[in-house]
Amino acid sequence: MRLGIREGFLEALSIAAFLATISLEGAIIFEMVVCLHHFIWNKIHLEMHKPEECFFSDWRLYKFLTRHHYLHHKHPDKNFNVVLPLADYVLGTSIRASRSDVRGMYRLRLL
């Protein structure tokens, strides 16, 4: 699954238009964040499912995001956000790893 950057830009346009009535800079930044999110999501989500040992594959942040996403696959109603997991904490959709989850993460070398 890939997120289209152009589609993301267009989908965010209505919110950006509203933001522009308050702050043009805020509207521009919002659109940039949406496009950046989609770009990053496409890169890291693909690496999570079809690893090719990208330059970021060993980064601690990437490993954290991979564990967060691993839990989403174990608990499909939790941990939705691959790029900005803070949203899961704020919205109450975050889940902690069980012992079984931790064992699975060790097997996959995510820990």
Would you kindly provide a written description of the structure presented here, covering whatever features stand out?
- The structure is a single chain.
- With 111 residues, this protein is mainly α.
- It folds into 2 domains: 1-55; 58-111, no CATH class.
- Helix content is 67%, strand content 0%.
- It contains 5 helices and no strands.
- It is elongated, with a radius of gyration of 16 Å.
- The relative contact order is 0.10.
- The mean pLDDT is 93.
Secondary-structure map with pairings?
Layout: H1 5-22, H2 24-49, H3 60-74, H4 86-91, H5 99-107
Short description:
By secondary structure, the protein is an all-alpha fold. It has five helices and no strands. It starts with a helix and ends with a helix.
Main attributes?
single chain; 2 domains; mainly alpha; elongated; 5 helices; 111 residues
Strand content: under 5%
The total strand number stands at 0
Total domains? 2
Pattern of helices and strands: HHHHH
Shape: elongated
User: Termini, distance in Å?
Assistant: 25 Å
Q: What percent of the residues sit in helical stretches (DSSP H or I)?
A: 55-70%
Identify low-pLDDT runs. Answer: none
The major pleated sheet works out as: none
Structural class: mainly alpha
